[in-house]
Each structure stands twice: as structure tokens, then as C-alpha cells.
Specification:
single chain; mainly alpha
């Protein structure tokens, strides 16, 4: 009988290196065990998925074009609901961020940048450093994003900054647009505001993606500073989207809910994908085994 394999030594005060081995329980760990791991796909194989999500996002925007009245009505309904529930910190934060440039300007840069930089950076980091978990975690992000896009299409919602002036919100990013590259009509570069979905407040994928990034950093980063940053990042983004009047508090709550539902659907989706892949492999196997017919001997 062989003795148990000893654990690798660790340096005092330094955390044990983290790997992709699962922990007990359900969730992502159930699908990234060594028996189920698959190599991370090539980078060029991921591009069609990104194109698909962008096409879906653009389609959601087209559904809103020409019918922004309903989006404004939905936004006003959220404001009334939050007042009824006594959970409406947006006004106070929006006033603070708009009148205090030392808060508002960094928040505008964060809103216009981090959503499109941090998330891809974390994806690439996972792909390179934790390939055994990449497919599962990427699937979680993609499913949650598609759920959010469904929400944009079914419930187009104007953000606080696009509500009538009587609602009392100020467009912080328009106020500070002369200090950044974004235009007065959106967080996109100047002149490209028409290419963005400005009526996609519900749910907040800024908060949802930030939560995903935070979980990835907390779970897989070996550096303690990065793990703490993983905890702080979604909280900071929540304050940013509220203070710049780009989202309501209930949008942020919905963004978290979308990520939770996406996580619950990830394991069934991965299993379904594996079954489909296995079925195609079985159909292709007989043809590969049979091979070409043997040639007749010469002279026979």
C-alpha cells in the first residue's frame, strides 16, 4: 500500500498556490474536475461567440429604436417602485458625483472604460493561466449576457439620465464630456453615440460583468491584492453606475440576479453541449474506422 502523496511545501506567510482543482459542492467546481477538463479553445474559435453577442446586442437596440416612449415609462415606473420601497440612493449619489469633479470625472472614465477592458482582460487571463476552468466560466458569462440581452429586448428601460428633467437626475457623463473622449449623448466616443444601446438599463450588465470579474479574481488569483480587488470591483462599479445616473439600484440588483441564474444554467448547458458533441462524434466514428476500400491485387 502506497503512502499518501505529501502536499507541496509552502513558504510561511505566503498562500498555497491556487489551481483549478474543484472543491466539494455544486457550482463551477462540479464541471472542471480533471476528468471533465478540456483544453481552452483557440483564440480564433472564440471570435464567433463575441460576434454573436454583439449581433444580439445590436438587435436589442433596433427593437427600441423609434419607440423610446415605453423605455422612459419603464424607467419612471422603476423610480416610483424604489420610492415606494424606500430604496432610492440614486438622487443623492448623482448630485454628489455631478458636483464633485474629483468623484465624477474618475467615475465617468471608469464607466466608459472598465466594462470593456477588465472583462476581456480577465477572460484572457483565465484562458492563459486557468485553462481547465476557462470554458465553464466563459459559458457562465455568455449565458448571463444573453439573459441580459433578452431583458433589454423585452423590457427596454431608459436610464435615470434620460428621464425627463422633472425626475431630478443630471447626466454626469454629459456634464464632464469635455474632459473625456465620450460624447454628450452616451459613453461611446464622440459621434458614435447612435451605435450604442442607451435604453438597456435593466438589468445592469455593468454590475453583472463586474461581479463575474470579481468572482474570477477572488477564486483564482494567487495575489492577495488582486483577490481584495475582486471583492471591491463590483461594489465600486455599482456606485459608479448609480452616481453617473446610468442605472437604478434595481438595475444593479437585476444584474446580480441575472448572473446567479446564468450560473445555475451553466452546468446543464455544458452537459447538453457535451451530449451533442458526443453524438456527433459517434456518428462520425464509423466512417473514420471503415476507411477507404482496399485496392484489388494487381494481376488478379
Amino acid at each position: 500500500m502506497s503512502s499518501p502523496r505529501p502536499s507541496p511545501p509552502t513558504t510561511p506567510g505566503r498562500p498555497r498556490p491556487r489551481d483549478d482543482r474543484p472543491v466539494h459542492g455544486s457550482g463551477p467546481s462540479a464541471d472542471v474536475s480533471p476528468a471533465r477538463r478540456r483544453p481552452a479553445p483557440r483564440w480564433w474559435a472564440e471570435l464567433p461567440l463575441i460576434a454573436l453577442v454583439y449581433a444580439a446586442y445590436s438587435g436589442g437596440r433596433l427593437l427600441v429604436a423609434g419607440g423610446t416612449g415605453s423605455a422612459v415609462a419603464h424607467g419612471e415606473a422603476i423610480v416610483r417602485l424604489e420610492h415606494t420601497l424606500r430604496i432610492s440612493p440614486e438622487h443623492a449619489l448623482n448630485q454628489l458625483f455631478t458636483h464633485q469633479a474629483w468623484l465624477g470625472v474618475p467615475a465617468c472614465f471608469a464607466y466608459a472604460t472598465l466594462h470593456y477592458v477588465i472583462t476581456p482582460a480577465v477572460l484572457v487571463w483565465l484562458w492563459r493561466r486557468h485553462s481547465g476552468s476557462y470554458l465553464y466560466m466563459r459559458t457562465w458569462l455568455m449565458i448571463s449576457t444573453l439573459l441580459g440581452l433578452i431583458g433589454f429586448s423585452l423590457l427596454p428601460t431608459a436610464p435615470p439620465r434620460l428621464l425627463p428633467a422633472a425626475a431630478g437626475f443630471q447626466d454626469t457623463m454629459a456634464h464632464f464630456s469635455h474632459l473625456g473622449w465620450w460624447g454628450a449623448d452616451a459613453s461611446a466616443p464622440q459621434g458614435l453615440g447612435g451605435m450604442t444601446n442607451q435604453y438597456a438599463a435593466m438589468p445592469s450588465l455593468h454590475v453583472g460583468w463586474a461581479l463575474w470579474c470579481g468572482v474570477m479574481l477572488w477564486r483564482y488569483a494567487e495575489n492577495r491584492v488582486l483577490r481584495v480587488a475582486g471583492l471591491a470591483y463590483p461594489v465600486a462599479i455599482t456606485f459608479v453606475v448609480l452616481g453617473t445616473a446610468n442605472h437604478y439600484l434595481l438595475d444593479a440588483v437585476a444584474g446580480v440576479a441575472v448572473m446567479i441564474v446564468g450560473l445555475l444554467l451553466t452546468r446543464p448547458a455544458r452537459h447538453l453541449t457535451a451530449r451533442v458533441r458526443s453524438r456527433f462524434a459517434r456518428r462520425a466514428a464509423p466512417a473514420a474506422v471503415a476507411g477507404p476500400a482496399p485496392a484489388s491485387p494487381a494481376g488478379r
